[in-house]
Amino acid sequence: MENYWEKGISFEEYVHIGRERLENPSNQQEIDYKHYYELGLQRMDRTLKKYIPDEEQLKELTSKNFDGKILIISEVWCGDASATVPVLVKFFEGKNDVRIFLRDNDKSLINQFLTNGTESIPKVIILDKDFNVKNSWGPRPKYGKELLMKYKADPENYTKDHFYNDLQMYYAKNRGKDAVQEILELL
């Protein structure tokens, strides 16, 4: 895990790479995902402007005496990531180091943390101070998973568009609180 940590990047680098891929795509996927890069960057910007860490959650973090690190497997184009990654970066800022590992650059890390056999992101890996995996979380909070199951159970009546709309509305209203709480419970 230490090698993956060393290859991880800061949130600022993550956003910079996203903007670079949007403005100067270097492969077909980046061209095909242009709209998703735009949305991801807009959503992260909005999240950063509106997110304020919850005082009770900050107290809970302090009480846990967590001295490890947070490694997030992510990509800027991902809708779940755009709602979660900036929140986690701000929440742990000044307390625990957070780095981001780009999933599409190297699949070897995500392949160790598959979700039902898929490379779903973001995936949050909680490391202790010696880089041992303490726990992992992702790709979305419990309520988001419930929405996904609702869609999968009845895609004709609860369409993909409805699912995505409801998920983004949830993220906008919840502002990362559930994701932070679920991760705090894993520390």
Number of spatially distinct domains: 1
| CATH homologous superfamily identity | Glutaredoxin
Note the total helix count: 9
Low-confidence stretches: none
Q: What is the CATH class?
A: Alpha Beta
Write down the overall geometry.
Answer: globular
Strand content: 5-15%
Strand line-up of the largest beta sheet: 2-1-3-4
Q: Report how far the terminal alpha carbons are from each other.
A: 17 Å
**So, CATH architecture?**
3-Layer(aba) Sandwich
Q: Within the CATH hierarchy, at the fold level, what is the topology? A: Glutaredoxin
How would you sum up the major sheet? 4 strands, mixed
The structural class is alpha+beta
Relative helix content = 40-55%
Give me the count of strands: 4
Write down the overall mean pLDDT: 97
Give the radius of gyration.
16 Å
Order of helices and strands: HHHHHEHEEEHHH
Protein name: Thioredoxin
Pfam families: Thioredoxin_9
Organism: Chryseobacterium soldanellicola
Task: Provide a descriptive summary of the structure in words.
There is one protein chain. This protein has 187 residues and is an alpha+beta fold. It has one domain: Glutaredoxin. 53% of the residues lie in helices and 11% in strands. It contains nine helices and four strands, in the order H-H-H-H-H-E-H-E-E-E-H-H-H. The chain has a four-stranded mixed beta sheet. Helix 6 links the parallel strand 1 and strand 2. Helix 2 packs antiparallel against helix 4 and helix 4 runs parallel beside helix 6. The mean pLDDT is 97. This is Thioredoxin. It comes from Chryseobacterium soldanellicola. It holds the Pfam family Thioredoxin_9.
